[in-house]
Amino acid sequence: MKQGGQSMNLENCIRFRRVLRQLGGKILIQPKRQVSGHKWLSSFTALSFTFFSAFPALPNQMPIVPEAQNEVQNIEGEKESLSLEELCHLRKSVQDIQSQAEAKQSKEEELCLEKKSKEELLLEMVGEQKAETSTLEATVKVVTEGFPIEIMAPSIAHYDRNVAALIVGIAKKESNWGKASPSKGGVDCYNYWGYKGAGGRGTAMGYACFATPEEAVQAIGDRLTRLVEKRSTSEPSNLVTTWKCGASCAGHSKESVQGWISDVHQYYSKIALR
After folding, report:
1. Same domain flag for 30 and 82
2. Is the dihedral of CA 20, 26, 29, 34 positive or negative?
3. Residue that finishes a domain, picked among 109, 133, 163
4. Is 94 found in the same domain as 157?
């Protein structure tokens, strides 16, 4: 349109009205306004930023809606009541709001990308953990191949590598990986560590009798995890008193104590030090 011989672009005004309408608001420009331009602009600006504060994330480009032609016609009918100065201020207000909306959208996009990066990092960490578990399981299977304990490799691999190494090392010393272990009613108790107490099937021959291989590994793994945390080390030499001797190794020969440590460490090192 033209005002005072100068051309004015109504596109921003149309877009702004359309934005507010889509957000549930509406600006009506009265054909005959009795207030001054400055008062009208102040009210308009206040309304504009009220809507902007309530809806901070406006899109960069608003789609053309079917009502656009009507908007043009409405504004064309109202243009005679607006001065050139008012229209210039109106366009500037719209541009300012659009600029702030674009800046906020850009910030939200950055935060979204940051979130995706964190999610990707978490996925990578999970993948690395799965890879480590898979590698540890394969190692346990290779070391114990052909022995009853081999079927426990998946459960053993869920523990920390050093704890898993103790599970394997102690089982080798106490039961030759399951070839010399208690049974009940002709059924294996899956107790390959000389663990005393009670299992899912009670006791057998003075030792715990577990119902499944998974139950057995969990009982031993959890117990060893607590001991490692308490001693701040997984070295067999620091666990011999608790696991082999009980309260004290005073009643055991030095040779038997050193033999236990040496035999456990032999297979502990095959897993823990990889």
Report:
1. yes
2. negative
3. 109
4. no
Domain membership of residue 118 (yes or no) is no
CA angle 173, 205, 197 (to 5 degrees): 80
User: Residue 274's pLDDT is what?
Assistant: 56
User: Could you list the mean pLDDT of each consecutive 10-residue stretch along the chain, which spans 274 residues?
Assistant: 44 53 45 42 43 43 47 52 71 78 76 62 67 86 96 96 96 96 96 94 96 98 95 92 88 94 94 76
- Write out the DSSP string of the chain: -EETTEE---HHHHHHHHHHHHTT------SS--S-HHHHHHHHHHHHHHHHHHS----SSPPP-TTHHHHHHHHHHHGGGS-HHHHHHHHHHHHHHHHHHHHHHHHHHHHHHHHHHHHHHHHHHHHHHHHHHHHHHHHHHHHTTTSGGGGGHHHHTTS-HHHHHHHHHHHHHHHTTTTS--EETTEE----S---S-BTTBEETTEE--SSHHHHHHHHHHHHHHHHHHHT---GGGTHIIIIITT-STTS-HHHHHHHHHHHHHHHHHHHT-
pTM score of the predicted model? 0.55
In the chain, how many domains are there? 2
Decide if 144 contacts 150 (C-beta within 8 A).
yes
* Domain identity same for 226 and 150: yes
The CATH number covering residue 202 comes to: 1.10.530
In a domain, 127, yes or no: no
Structural domain including 188 reads 144-272
Same domain, 13 and 92: yes
pLDDT computed for residue 220 by the predictor: 97
- The pLDDT value recorded for residue 133 is 77
